[in-house]
Design brief:
The protein is of the alpha+beta class and 126 residues long. It is built from 2 helices and 6 strands. It holds the Pfam family Ribonuc_L-PSP. It comes from Sungkyunkwania multivorans.
Length: 126
């Protein structure tokens, strides 16, 4: 049975989807972009700040499901420019213990919602 997970501490969905869906002990999180949920403003000053906002949004969705980054088993990172990989990776890496970090792919895409530079989705298991 699935349970929809939502929090006002992360941006509301931009379309017909939810922030996350919990099925048994597995949380499937929709991609997050750098929208500050308190102001609705985009955080696009630089790629590191943009990535920090994305990770903060993901952290809040995890918390709404009573989980943390330690529960994450898989991530998908979408970049508009692979030249940003090192900076995104540096910020992203700060949220995980390298020895137990989740599986991941990082891909460059032509465009992302609202023409942001990075979007990240996750799967977590409790």
């Amino acid at each position: 049975m699935k349970k929809i997970i939502t929090t006002d501490k992360a941006p509301a969905p931009l379309g017909p989807y939810n922030q996350a869906t919990l099925v048994d002990n597995t949380l499937y999180m929709s991609g997050q972009i750098a929208i500050n949920p308190a102001t609705g403003a985009m955080v696009l000053d630089n790629i590191k700040d943009e990535t920090k906002q994305v990770m903060s949004n993901l952290k809040e969705v995890l918390a709404a499901a009573d989980m943390t980054f330690e529960h994450v088993v898989k991530t998908s990172i979408f970049l508009s420019d692979m030249h940003n990989f090192a900076q995104v990776n540096e910020v992203y890496g700060g949220y995980f213990d390298e020895a137990t970090a989740p599986a991941r792919e990082t891909v460059e895409v032509a465009n992302l919602p609202k023409f942001v530079n990075v979007e990240i989705s996750m799967i977590a298991v409790k």
